[in-house]
Amino acid sequence: MYLDAKLLSANDNARFMRAVSLMKIQDYERAIADFDVIIEQTQNVFVDDSPAAAYYNRGVCKHKLGRYYDAIDDYNSALKAAEKPSDHYFDYFINDVLEVRIEESQIFTARGLSKSALGFNDAAQRDYEIAARENMFAPLLQEAH
Question: Is the terminal CB of the chain with fewer CB neighbours within 10 Å at N or C?
Answer without folding.
Answer: C
